[in-house]
Amino acid sequence: MLKRHSSQPYAETRHGVSREGASPGYTPRHNHLLALLPLQEYEQLLPDLEPVALPPGKVVYGAGDREDHLYFLAGGTVCRFCRTDSGKSTEFAVSGSEGVIGIASFLGGISMPSEAMVLAAGYAYRLRAKRLQAEFERDGPLQRLLLRYTLSLITQTAQTAVCNRYHTLEQQLCRWILSCLDRAPANELTMTQELIANMLGVRREGVTEVAGRLQQAGMIHYSRGRMTVLDRPQLEVRVCECYSVVKKETDRLFPDYQQLGTDRVHGSGLDYQCRENRRISGLPPASARVSVAA
């Protein structure tokens, strides 16, 4: 059973955000959606973005909590899951720096019956729902980006339901490992088998058995709650189609995403990606150059 943590926002210092962020190791531009914003819109948001630390196990939003903020994830991994009255749980989506937490804040629902918990430590920049509403009333690029992200999230949720119903535990575990790995800075994940079992809604013994087979096949090394992926291509062979369905749909909606990491490394701009993003969104070409902070 998952241990419950306080659903109140994690304590943080209200030192504000400088033009490129004040959080150690992270800037708002590490969130892909913020990185894709035209420079003018991005700079208008900066004063209202609050940095928030996300330690492992932190519940960003509990079931039924009022979602007064939208969290732009700059690092780490957050899992969305539902819990039954008997305490059992199962995940339906994971998010990292490609997305946000708190979609009820702009969809009009105020709250959701699911929970969002931090799996891997990271950082986020949160925006008050009232400020976000003002952006939506402008019908600007942020609105378009968030709606497209919501569409990708719906795809992930639907495909997870298919996976949980029709595919083997090995396929489910491979999908989950790859999804978390896509949002990790390295090929290592820190999580217990009990946590994995709770997220997949299965018995811990089943996870132990499958993880043992994957380790014996040389795909992973698992010890003391630390999993190192040794052979990703083989995991991609073992995984079901659900992983590629979600990835292809995300790539279709956000062709810009694939270039963001490269641009951070090499310092190049996002001119092409933002032009493509605006073309897909039906926006006129932006005159301002948009770049990603190193």
Describe, in plain words, how this protein is organized in 3D.
- It is a single chain.
- By secondary structure, the protein is of the alpha+beta class.
- It has 2 domains: 1-138, Jelly Rolls; 165-262, Arc Repressor Mutant, subunit A, CATH 1.10.10.
- It has 12 helices and 9 strands.
- The chain has helices at 32-35, 39-45, 104-107, 129-137, 141-166, 169-181, 193-200, 204-216, 232-238, 241-253, 257-266, 271-281, and strands at 50-54, 59-61, 69-83, 89-95, 100-101, 115-128, 188-190, 220-223, 226-229.
- The strands form 2 sheets. Strands 1, 2, 3, 4, 5 and 6 form a 6-stranded antiparallel β-sheet that branches.
- Helix 6 (169-181) crosses helix 9.
- The protein is globular, with a radius of gyration of 19 Å.
- The model is unreliable at 1-22 and 262-294 (pLDDT under 50).
Oligomer description: single chain
Task: Supply the number of helical segments.
Answer: 12
- How large is the share of residues in beta strands? 15-25%
- The number of distinct β-strands equals 9
Mean pLDDT: 84
Query: What structural class is derived from the secondary structure elements?
Result: alpha+beta
Biggest sheet: strands, sense, closure?
6 strands, antiparallel
Write the element-wise H/E pattern from the N-terminal end onward.
HHEEEEEHEHHHEHHEEHHHH
CATH superfamily of the largest domain: Jelly Rolls
Q: In total, how many domains does the architecture comprise?
A: 2
The outline comes out as: globular
Kindly report how far apart the N and C termini lie.
40 Å
- CATH-defined topology of the largest domain: Jelly Rolls
Q: Helical percent range?
A: 40-55%
The CATH C-level class name of the largest domain:
Mainly Beta
Q: Ranges with pLDDT <50 over ≥5 residues?
A: 1-22, 262-294
The CATH architecture of the largest domain can be named as Sandwich
User: What's the gyration radius in Å?
Assistant: 19 Å
